[in-house]
Amino acid sequence: MGEQQEKLTVAQAIIVEGKYDKIKLDSIIQGVILVTNGYRIFKDPEKMALIRYFAAHTGIIILTDSDRAGFRIRSYLKGSIPEGKITHVYIPDIFGKEKRKDKPSAEGKLGVEGMERSVLEDAFRRAGVLTETAPVRSGLTRLDLYELGLTGGRDSASRRRALLEQLGLPTLLSTGGMLEVLNTMMTRQELEAFLHQHRNGD
Q1: This prediction's pTM
Q2: At what angle do helices 117-126 and 175-185 cross, to 10 degrees?
């Protein structure tokens, strides 16, 4: 089996959807991990109070699956926390089936529990969680996305989708969500270079 890898320490409380997601993260992360129990969080005021507490005191990380249900839960949490720091960590769209399940999910995507450790580490690192300092905001704006052909054009939706796939981000990510993540990853110049390289690489 090889040597067991050391756990990563995360100061913020991590919010996941289910108990198997928590079990997966427990093997990788040293820290507080809270479970929404799927849509049950919509009618669980005690759990929401706990999540709001952590948001205000330590900050929280929202890590849901990359399917529509995961994005609905993520959106609900974001809208239900009036104060505190929220960091979004996104897993990529990887299609397959978790070992414990008889068949794939409705959308065929692996959830948090089905992700390899390296993929999860990369997702946390991309969000700036595993660095000593907070991610640098590069100042990318919606105007930049427009000028680079990622919004407002005939092919902009397919270009955004291609970019998200290349960066290992879920394709259901909204334009605003994509902008938020890009600002933790690269400058306008780096994004421009990445797009040019991707288009020339076809």
Answers
A1: 0.73
A2: 90
